[in-house]
Amino acid sequence: MNSKLRAYFLISLLAISWGTIPLIIRTSDVSSLSLVGIRTFLGTIFLFFFVITRGGIKKELVRSGFILGPLLAIHWSTMFKSIELNTVAVGIGLVFSYPIFIILFEIFRGKNVKRHQVLIILTGFLGLFLLLDLSTISSIAGVLYGIISAVTLAILIIYGSEKSKEFGGLNVAFIQVLFAGACLSPFTFNGFSWMVDNLAVSIFLGFFLTGVGLATYWYVVKIITPLSIGTITYLEPVTGVIIGAVILNENLQNIQYLGFLLVISAGVVQVYLDSKYTSGSSA
Hints:
Elements: H1 3-18, H2 21-27, H3 32-51, H4 59-85, H5 88-95, H6 98-108, H7 115-132, H8 140-167, H9 169-183, H10 185-190, H11 192-197, H12 199-220, H13 226-232, H14 235-246, H15 254-282
Helix pairs in contact: 1-12, 1-14, 3-4, 3-9, 3-12, 4-5, 4-8, 4-9, 5-7, 5-8, 5-14, 6-8, 6-13, 7-13, 7-15, 8-9, 9-12
């Protein structure tokens, strides 16, 4: 397995595992902001032990933390609130409109965006739109939170991908959650007793989904482009919606199954074309 296929495999597993987050949000008796605070707090502790053995952090990256951290804090906070206020399908579906914003930002920056990449992204987004089921929207505020989360995630990915190539994915992940954790510390304090009482869930959310997850993500972004990653991470809302239907008894309409098919198809085509171009360029 070459490095690009390995990266796609890792981001697929990561997207599926992150799809469990809505279940934690909807079944926890603590505020969504406290959950985000707990996530960043434990993620920082987990990543610290790895970073400290690798020679520390450069000052240039620390300065970038003042951008990376607040962006991550806003993205996660608004995502968790969106899922809390609407169904899983609506909340996470809105957040994953972010590849559209990546396309717009890349074009605005004068980057060359290939037509086939735009078509794949739009196909996946159409699937996501069908998955969304607008009839289940119960909170306009939740919709606004979801859009804000999508925009901040798009900015975060574009900015963070450049820093990851320069300073390494593990270092970027650590600085990101460290500064985000500082922003969210009051909410972490409010949820501290819940974290202690629900240690297994907290460790899964903070150590695995956040620490391991972010380190993996920023490793992958050095190998495949943010737009390509955006296509594959559509698997996250698919997983979240399936969990919402199976465990939380959220109803699915027939049109949503078509959405599933389009999302999966977009991901398969993305990997196939990217692998094909890679093979062609190395031949």
